[in-house]
Amino acid sequence: MRLRNITGADEIIANSEFVIAGPSEHKGHWKEYWHNENELHIEIGMGKGKFLMEMARLNSDINYLGIERYSSVLLRAVQKMEQAPLPNLRFLLMDARELTAVFAMGEVDRIYLNFSDPWPKDRHTKRRLPSRQFLQIFDQVLTEKGRLEFKTDNRPLFDFAMEEIEPAGWKLAAATYDLHQDEELSRGNVMTEYEEKFSALGHPICKYMIYRDKEGR
Ligand code: SAM
């Protein structure tokens, strides 16, 4: 998702109380930032923030951070938060490649990847968020029991993601190729903006949940 450059977006974001400026200052101290001991869940590539806003509303005992690299997209999430602010949700304008500059080892309890950009060309595999290169970065910020959940309607991307799990040193907890027909995995499912759009077109939604295979190393 990349929207047209919006005049003033950078300034609005820089002045927004909902976007954390200089997030690396909080590395290793995120619990102090929130003033509580609650779990921290992050969505990488959150787009306009629909999923996280609903999650934060439903789970007031979890802290959420939405990560998005384009200010034109993040602006939409900021505008929605201004209408209905949530104390347990904040945003970061950054690239997921910089994750270890912002989070210390074991600071993140869960990572959500929803409808990540597919980067279909072979030479771009490293840019795919569920690639082994990114899994290695995620590995450095998750807690021991941390989990990563990935949803997409893009079957080639999902097949690629499934093949990356083991070589990256992770393990599959659960997976489905048709989330909305899966009674167990769809329980409590919160739809993302893209999920609503593509499931309305009849696309089945794939989902996996994975964790680090600490014993396998
Ligand atoms: N998660 C939302 C949903 O499911 O509706 C948005 C999906 S959209 C296809 C993917 C988003 O991920 C885009 O807004 C894009 O800018 C963002 N993104 C892609 N790669 C990223 C990266 N390396 N770091 C941060 N954001 C990224």
Keywords:
single chain, 217 residues, seven-stranded mixed beta sheet, alpha/beta, 8 helices
Describe the structure.
This protein is an alpha/beta fold and 217 residues long. 30% of the residues lie in helices and 23% in strands. It has helices spanning 9-15, 30-34, 50-58, 71-83, 99-102, 132-139, 155-165, 193-200, and strands at residues 39-44, 62-68, 89-93, 108-114, 142-152, 170-176, 206-212. A 7-stranded mixed beta sheet has the order 3-2-1-4-5-7-6, with helices on both faces. Strand 4, helix 6 and strand 5 form a beta-alpha-beta unit. The termini are far apart.
Which helices and strands, and how do they pair?
Elements (H helix, E strand, L loop, with lengths): L8 H7 L14 H5 L4 E6 L5 H9 L3 E7 L2 H13 L5 E5 L5 H4 L5 E7 L17 H8 L2 E11 L2 H11 L4 E7 L16 H8 L5 E7 L5
Parallel strand pairs: 1-2, 1-4, 2-3, 4-5
Antiparallel strand pairs: 5-7, 6-7
The site of S-adenosylmethionine has 21 residues, from strand 2 and helix 8.
Strand-pairing-aware structural class: alpha/beta
Q: State the separation between the terminal residues, measured CA to CA.
A: 36 Å
Contiguous helical run count? 8
**Uncertain spans, ≥5 residues at pLDDT below 50?**
none
Largest sheet: 7 strands, mixed
Task: Write down the overall geometry.
Answer: globular
Chain-averaged pLDDT: 95
- Strands, count: 7
Strand order of the largest sheet: 3-2-1-4-5-7-6
What is the rounded Rg? 17 Å
Strand fraction equals: 15-25%
